[in-house]
Specification:
CATH class of one domain: Mainly Beta
Strand order of the largest sheet: 1-58-57-56
Shape: elongated
Largest sheet: 4 strands, antiparallel
CATH superfamily of one domain: YVTN repeat-like/Quinoprotein amine dehydrogenase
Radius of gyration: 31 Å
Number of strands: 67
CATH topology of one domain: Methylamine Dehydrogenase, Chain H
Length: 696
């Protein structure tokens, strides 16, 4: 029976059970926050942005990220919100924990509803109608104006019925087209022109309030009070009209470049109400708790109170964080245009940085931010329309961004990409494409260690482990190591020969390489041999970043953050509470793991809440200990649950010893050759691993 149990445990692939706490969002950095939609329902206020949708139940609350779906086209029937984003999706607004459900693959540029019927408009396929809550849609284009689109394949012209805007009243449905307004009754299948008093041009906005219709043609608003039979000019805006809102005795108009205007029912003139707005590009308007709320193009949400707009953005983060780095007393982060700093691990301030010129349609921005003791280094670049066209820089600051010094003047080569930078002890590496240089004196002299001709001319990844530099080049199985003479040599024994290594990571004395298609591999002997180390790690392509503390390694992918304390034998997702799993950067500072997301700022997770032991009867044991370690003849284990099974494998995955584990039992390792081994403890459906060094 004991032999059978042993074979079952060793033969079964067992997932590690890691018990984690929650991710919490830090206060920023905010980045540019463009508001695409504003929705209200009872006490709920929802705002959609390009980085996801947020909600709150009181103006004084902070916005809470609910999901990463972005939408600008929506309508509401009762408590059900319908949006067009990656098809048609619906959400129950009465349940704050509900997620969007995709109900149709149809793509629409406008939505409207009346009673229980949904209407949709497509700029290429015309008008659609659904009577079953959006699951099935029927096209109804008879009578709509026809447009033609040129395509490169025969018959070269495709005829369409473009619908640019929609609204519905109790009497009819109205389509905005490229040739004005068309109308049909709910029972009819044929559209009729309703352009009396309107220009026959493209409708850019359509709204209805209590059967009063408003239609906009770029900056001109027309109004109809007789179901579209006649129209009259209502307002001429200085710039493009983006939204209209009627509330109480006022009508409000949002514009693309001139803020917000209002007019009362008994007035003939419009007045601007822009006091307190830092920008005048307004996207959306709504009413919430009897206050006017507006969504801007870059600074989030504001509400109008006492003739003043008040910022209401807290919690609505849309920054794309590509780097996080730490000094002894400060945490730094960057997006593509700014560097931010934090002393309290919660709030962020924008740091002073060198001015980075920007020209239309040309690249410009920050690439890497790294730390060396109390110095922060930043690489950035910009392109110009005139020779020498490309400008790449590396600057450092030792005073938290107050002053910066450029140290890249003596690099002998500047390409069209920004430098990627890496630092180990006193050696700073700068590389791009196939060219790499290092300096040991802050840029006074640089040494060229570029890839030789026999290797593929692209650095995919770079790392220094135990003082040795490694590179992932773009050729199949081209994992390279820099020797003592600064020459690149292959270090790929055990890696798949048919795919490229894409990224590198490390923890403790272990080096990791992620190989395209095949996944993660680990080496404990400086790349001389590799073994598979990707059990449980999910990604569509590669890894974004890593952070480690001793043998605990964190990896970020497009599926979120993963952790291992068994050198990659088992990975577990660390995503509880993390709404945006696109994590581009990781950093451990003091007792906290920080994650920079692609769109939703920086999140944090206390390392004290990480529990990497094996749960036993509802409790958790401490991490596995091997005594002594290094060992020469015998070892024993501490922190074992009763009935555990152990196995010892070499770095090639070959098992050299196995059996039942007991804290009072000594295990003979005297016949095992000197080297590094992995000890794995199995208990029920749990697993723990630790590194064993045999040294005689």
């Amino acid at each position: 029976m004991k032999v059978f149990r042993l074979l079952v445990f060793i033969a079964t692939i067992i997932q590690v059970n890691l018990s984690f706490g929650q991710w919490l969002q830090t206060d920023g950095p905010y980045g540019k926050t463009s508001v695409l939609s504003l929705i209200t329902h009872d006490s709920l206020l929802m705002g959609s942005t390009p980085c996801g949708y947020f909600s709150k139940h009181d103006l004084n609350d902070s916005w809470k990220l609910q999901g990463t779906l972005a939408f600008s086209v929506h309508t509401k029937i009762g408590s059900t919100l319908y949006v067009s984003a990656d098809g048609i999706q619906k959400l129950d607004l009465s349940d704050q924990d509900e997620m969007f459900i995709k109900i149709s693959s149809l793509t629409l540029e406008s939505l409207a509803s009346h009673d229980t019927v949904l209407y949709g408009g497509s700029k290429t396929m015309g008008f659609y109608q659904s009577i079953d809550q959006g699951y099935e849609w029927v096209s109804k284009n008879e009578g709509l104006p026809v447009d033609s689109i040129f395509v490169y394949f025969p018959p070269h012209y495709v005829y369409t019925n473009p619908v640019t805007a929609l609204t519905a009243t109790s009497e009819a449905v109205f389509c905005g087209t490229k040739k004005g307004v068309f109308r049909k009754s709910p029972a009819s299948n044929t559209w009729q022109s309703a352009n009396n008093g309107l220009p026959e041009s493209e409708v850019t906005l359509f709204q209805s309030y209590n059967d009063t219709l408003f239609v906009a043609f770029t900056n001109m608003i027309y109004r109809s009070t007789d179901a579209g039979n006649t129209w009259s000019i209502f307002f001429e805006s200085p710039s493009l009209l983006t939204d209209l809102l009627q509330y109480s005795q006022y009508i409000y108009a949002a514009t693309k470049a001139d803020g917000i205007y209002k007019i009362s029912n008994d007035s003939q003139s419009w007045s601007s109400i822009n006091s307190g707005l830092p920008e005048l590009e307004i996207n959306k308007l709504c009413i919430y708790n009897q206050l006017i709320v507006c969504g801007t193009e870059s600074t989030g949400v504001y509400y109008f109170q006492n003739d003043q707009w008040v910022n209401n953005q807290p919690g609505m983060f849309c920054s794309y964080i590509n780097n996080i780095a730490a000094t002894s007393n400060m945490l730094f982060a960057s997006d593509y245009s700014s560097v931010y700093l934090s002393e309290d691990r919660s709030s962020w301030l924008k740091a002073n940085t060198p001015e980075i010129p920007s020209y239309p349609n040309l690249s410009s921005g920050i690439n890497d931010v790294i730390s060396r003791r109390d110095t922060i280094l930043m690489s950035y670049n910009y392109s110009t329309p005139n020779y020498p066209y490309h400008h790449s820089f590396i600057s450092l600051t030792a005073d938290n961004g107050i002053s910066w010094t450029n140290i890249a003047d003596n690099i002998p080569y500047t390409g069209d990409d920004p430098y990627r930078i890496y630092i180990d002890n006193n050696r700073l590496y700068a590389y791009e494409d196939d060219r790499m240089f290092f300096t040991t004196n802050n840029g006074l002299q640089w040494s060229d260690i570029s890839l030789p001709a026999q290797f593929c001319n692209m650095f995919y990844g770079f790392i220094v482990s135990d003082g040795i530099a490694f590179a992932a080049a773009c050729g199949n199985s081209q994992l390279l190591r820099l020797d003592e003479n600064n020459n690149w040599i292959l270090a790929n024994n055990g890696l798949p020969p048919d795919r490229e290594p894409l990224a590198l990571a490390k923890c403790d004395s272990a080096l990791f390489a992620f190989v395209n298609v095949h996944g993660m591999y680990v080496s404990f002997d400086h790349g001389n041999s590799w073994r598979s180390a990707g059990e449980g790690l999910e990604t569509n392509y590669s890894i974004y970043d890593f952070a480690f503390k001793d043998s605990l390694l964190f990896i970020s992918t497009d599926y979120g953050v993963y952790a291992t304390q068994s050198y990659g034998q088992n990975w577990a997702a660390l995503n509880q509470g993390l709404k945006n799993k696109q994590v581009f950067s990781l950093e451990i500072w003091q007792d906290t793991l920080f994650a920079g997301t692609a769109g939703n700022g920086i999140w944090k997770h206390s390392l004290h809440n990480l529990n990497l032991g094996i749960p036993v009867n509802g409790e958790t044991i401490k991490a596995l200990r091997i005594i002594p370690n290094p060992a020469s003849h015998f070892i024993r284990f501490e922190n074992l649950p009763e009935g555990s099974i152990y196995s010892i494998t070499d770095l090639m995955g070959q098992r050299v010893n196995a059996g039942e584990a007991d804290e009072s039992k000594y295990i003979d390792v005297s016949k095992i050759p000197s080297g590094i081994y992995i000890v794995t403890i199995h208990f029920e459906d749990k697993i723990q691993s630790a590194k064993l060094i045999v040294n005689r």
